[in-house]
Amino acid sequence: MTMIGLCSICSRPAAGTCPLCGRLVCTSCSDPVTRVCNACAGKR
Questions:
Q1: Which residues lie across from 13 on neighbouring strands?
Q2: Per-domain residue ranges for the chain?
Q3: pTM, whole model, 2 decimals?
């Protein structure tokens, strides 16, 4: 796994970016299927 930065929500190593807002997010702070971050998922 290549570290790309820190999660914008919890500061753990990020695993990718949210497709809606572009935030760096870890696997704990994003949906595993849609990869949408918890912050955006709460707005839906």
A1: 6
A2: 1-44
A3: 0.80
Tokens representing residue 30 in the block: 């994003």
Residue stretches of the chain with pLDDT short of 70: 1-3, 44
The full DSSP string for 1-44 is -----B-TTT-SBP-EE-TTT--EE-GGGB-TTT--BHHHHHH-
Q: What gap in Å lies between CA 29 and CA 14, rounded to an integer?
A: 9
pLDDT at site 28: 96
Return the closest-CA partner of residue 42 out of 32, 31, 33.
31
